[in-house]
Amino acid sequence: MRKPKTLGYIDGFNLYHRALEDTPHKWLNVAEKCRVLLPPNDIQGIRYFMARVNARAHDLRQQTYLRALETIPALQIFFGHF
How many alpha carbons fall within 13 Å on the CB side of residue 45? Predict the structure, then answer.
């Protein structure tokens, strides 16, 4: 039986502020999380939607996380405005 082809859509703002902000798990591998949450599916790609932060202290961490996300094959980052 073929696995259903699936695209993952992630709202980075809600992921961070609702699931990660007050935890030690800031560096979530979103591709692995999609595979764990949807094991019977063939993850074809991930769309990650986010806005850049303005605060300087957070900017460096966000830039580092963005560079990490860019290493995930088939993941695209889409920037919006907050």
Answer: 6
